[in-house]
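To: structure subgroup
Subject: Chain for Friday's discussion

All,

I'm putting the inputs and outputs inline so they're searchable in the archive.
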Amino acid sequence: MTWAIEERSYSRRRACGLIGLDPKTCRYASRRSDDVEIRERLKTLAGQRRRFGYRRLHILLRREGIALNHKKLFRIYREERLTVRRRGGRKRALGTRAPMNLPQGPNQRWSLDFVADQLVDGRRFHVLVVVDDFTRECLAQHAATITVFPRQGSWSLGRCGGSEAKS
């Protein structure tokens, strides 16, 4: 529109008509203040209190004596692209892990595992299995049944028997 007014010497009304814009919209001048001090204070508070949203920041600004409508505060909050920072995720191991050494002979490394199953009558049982990683031999098994007491909501282990460690 500026090009049409300056280069072609069209009137403002005719230039607005060419692009389909109402002349009042073109003449409009905002009377809104910049709120620079409010913006700066809001940024500093949001930087200090990362987990505070605009509502809690509004309370802090009111305590400091800055009277502000919550709708105007939300508009400024969005214009400054302030958001509640998310909490960090799960901490992961840094660096590379050293690979686990392979056993070179029997009885250098054992592995433990729990195996669970259910009997025909519905009782569940668990078996603790100890295996030698080099020979892949089962060194020990310990079985236990789980009894669930429905009224108390607890459970107990009962020994079923099982083979003992080989020598």
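Points worth raising on Friday:
Strands lie at 110-118, 124-132, 138-149, 154-161.
Helices lie at 2-6, 12-19, 23-27, 36-48, 54-63, 70-79.

D.
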